[in-house]
Design goal:
mainly beta; Immunoglobulin-like; 3 domains; five-stranded mixed β-sheet; 4 helices; globular; signal; copper ion binding; oxidoreductase activity
């Protein structure tokens, strides 16, 4: 017996250590959100900074990491951050939008606890309240594959995040007042790349090497086109899915989208334009940055390459050309083509139609005729504490009604683990981007 007891203790300790070491890694961040001076167009503006930075700090994680972010709100109004592309599995209260999160009051803090479970890819975060996004407060978020998971391309020599989008010289409070008064937002004043408009930033590369560019459209109103003078781009990933590796001269990126491309520095050693311009606008806004070869023998020269402007056939062909790489691994060892999602029967079809009705003399925006108005209590709390009278399930139809627009705290009911087909319809004369917060979906047609 004297021999067995130490062995039992030893085995117990080994088992305990194994359990502890088997937990997914944690990454901790502490952020302070403040106002500060920024100069996107060379003119002082009030921006929203995170730890004094605009754009905010880059979050770099690995599949299954636990990401803990303690956010202190030092603004003079409530604040929330949403994590574009991060799946929320039964923890929607971490998603950072008003319906599920209590806003962080001025002078207070909230700790987000996220897990990028079974995810890879390129994303971004942004403030979701009060048009704060028009003042900054956004940043990049990437999820790398675990070391044992094969990736369908060689490791790049560098990894760049590009956060591009339209920008206004008016403050977010001025823009918010325009909307609150029932008017449309004006045309943007320009385009910025990583907070820079009139003062180009530089991305330095070594000749002959290949680099990954993660490009997100973080703007408010406008689709953009991205291109690099004299260089081809190989598309390898779109928001967490490895794609067929098609080659493009330029890529359209709509609001909220994130694309990942490989670029090889295979041209003569000099500097080249990186160009972002607006799409589907009568006036084309353009901003440039610089791709700088470390052994450059000359500065940028000649006109920057022109891109598509109002043409609609080309972007449709681009969308049709983007396909998932079924023979590549995703976040797990099994191939993306073995997930068999297409064999799951859908239990419900929802058709969502956007519109822009005038309600009570003001311009509003609606889905299936309902223009959402928030309740005083976040809906997640109202549901949890069973507070009556704030909303009712089914207060928005599964299909377009064809009726006049009206105001409602609209909530659509759904059952856990339902596999739902959603059809988007846009009868308006403007391009629309749709975002389903906290969820993952496949475009099938």
């Amino acid at each position: 017996m004297g021999y067995l007891k130490p062995c039992s203790v030893f085995l117990l300790l080994v088992f305990f250590v194994a359990c502890v070491s088997g937990e997914d890694p944690y990454r901790f961040y502490t952020w302070n959100v403040t106002y500060g001076d920024i100069y996107p167009f060379g003119i002082q503006q009030q921006g929203i900074l995170i730890n004094g930075q605009f754009p905010g700090p880059q979050i770099e994680s690995v599949t299954n990491d636990n990401v803990i972010i303690n956010v202190f709100n030092s603004l003079d109004e409530p604040f929330l951050i949403s994590w574009n592309g991060v799946l929320q599995r039964r923890n929607s209260w971490q998603d950072g939008v008003y319906g599920t999160n209590c806003p962080i009051p001025p002078g207070q803090n909230f700790t987000y606890a996220l897990q990028v479970k079974n995810q890879i890819g390129s994303y971004f975060y942004f403030p979701s309240l009060a048009l704060h996004k028009a003042a900054g407060g956004y940043g990049g978020l990437s999820v790398a594959s675990r070391p044992m998971i094969p990736v369908p391309f060689d490791p790049p020599s560098g990894d760049f995040t590009i956060l591009a989008g339209d920008w206004y010289q008016k403050s977010h409070t001025e823009l918010r007042a325009i909307l609150d008064n029932g008017n449309n937002l004006p045309f943007p004043d320009g385009i910025i790349i990583n907070g820079h408009g009139s003062n180009p930033i530089t991305f330095t590369v070594d000749q002959g090497k290949t680099y990954r560019f993660r490009i997100s459209n973080v703007g408010l109103t406008t689709s953009i086109n991205f291109r690099i003078q004299g260089h081809k781009m190989k598309l390898v990933e779109v928001e967490g899915t490895h794609t067929l590796q098609n080659i493009y001269d330029s890529i359209d990126i709509h609001l909220g989208q994130s694309y990942s491309v490989l670029v090889t520095a295979d041209q003569p050693p000099q500097d080249y334009y990186i160009v972002v311009s607006t799409r589907f606008t009568s006036k084309v806004l353009t901003v440039v940055s610089i791709l700088h070869y470390r052994n450059s023998e000359g500065t940028v020269s000649g006109p920057f390459p022109l891109g598509p402007t109002i043409d609609t056939e080309w972007p449709i062909e681009q969308v049709r050309s983007i396909r998932g790489n079924l023979t590549a691994s995703g976040p797990r060892p099994n191939l993306q083509g073995t997930y068999k999602y297409g064999m799951i029967n859908t239990t419900r079809t929802i058709t969502l139609q956007n519109s822009a009705p005038i309600i009570n003399g003001k311009q509003r925006y609606a889905i299936n005729s309902v223009s959402f108005i928030p309740s005083d209590t976040p809906l997640k709390l109202a549901d949890y504490f069973k507070i009556q009278g704030l909303f009712s399930l089914g207060s928005i139809s599964d299909n377009p009604t064809g009726g006049d627009g009206y105001l409602q705290t609209s909530v659509m009911a759904a059952d856990y683990r339902d596999y739902v087909e959603i059809v988007f319809q846009n009868p308006e004369d403007t391009l629309q981007s749709w975002h389903i917060d906290g969820h993952f979906f496949f475009v099938v047609g």
